[in-house]
Every structure is written in C-alpha cells, then in structure tokens.
Amino acid sequence: xxxxxxxxxxxxxxxxxxxxxxxxxxxxxxxxxxxxxxxxxxxxxxxxxxxxxxxxxxxxxxxxxxxxxxxxxxxxxxxxxxxxxxxxxxxxxxxxxxxxxxxxxxxxxxxxxxxxxxxxxxxxxxxxxxxxxxxxxxxxxxxxxxxxxxxxxxxxxxxxxxxxxxxxxxxxxxxxxxxxxxxxxxxxxx
Length: 190
Known about the structure:
The protein is of the alpha+beta class. Helix content is 29%, strand content 27%.
C-alpha cells in the first residue's frame, strides 16, 4: 500500500463524520415562528379577564366543574368559549413582529396600531404567571390585528380570528343551558 492510499483511508473516518453531521442538521426544516405566550399552560389557567372597549370587565374563574363568571355577574360560563380562546392564545404565532426600534421611528405608533384605546384588554392568570395583552386595531386588509403583550416592547400582528373569540359582553360567555340534569337521572324518565 502506498502513502497516498494510506492518506485516503486515514481521511475516510473524518469524511464520514462530516457527512453524518451534515445529514442530521442540514435537512431540518425551519423551526417556524415562535409562540407569543410560551409560558401559557392551558390546564393551569385559573382566571381569564376581558375588558372590551367601553364595556364592563368580564371575569371567568376556573372551578372544579368548569368555568364560572364572576364579573360583571355571577353565573355559569360557557366552558367551550373560554377554552377556545385559551387554545388560540396558546398556539398564537405572529405573522409579523414590529420591534421597539421600528416603533420609535413611528411617533404616532400607539394610535396607528390602536393601542391608545384598545379594542380589548385581556389578562390571563395561572398561578404566579400573569400576562396582560392589549388588542389594537385591524391591519389594513382586515384579516389581522395588532397585539401588544405587556413587558414586551414590540408589537405582534396576529390572525384577526382572535377578535371572534373575545366576548363583547358577559352574555356571550354565559352558559345558556336552561337545566343541566345528569344523564343518569334522565334515564329514569325514559
């Protein structure tokens, strides 16, 4: 065996390692946009407060049996409506993020994005974790909305579906079931 062949065989393990690492890392797809509220845990949320512009605050509290409205009235709440909102918040990713530096270049940014008088203010609590969100105005096409998370100096642009999940008044989250009988008691009636 000549020295050239020994040299080639000596490089083979290094070539294999480089090829292996390349295959592992090069073909991964993009990580995707980061979630806006990564610390939110759906099952640990205890309170959801919504303050629609010009309306009374709506506060729902998780109970053993589901959700209960505590403000502006005490009444059983529609668990599915609250859970849908929380699911959206948990999976919410921005289509665009406007950084603090970009916002400084726009002296009227607060009014332009609708945060001077937000459409809604939303507070979600889970244990020691508390997040407050301002929902601003819709974007020019209308399919997205500006969103600001207290403590984050930028502005997010998210799907306007959020607006459909936020109640405009307490009646939208009130449980409309007239009489909630257990299924076992109904079997005796049939």
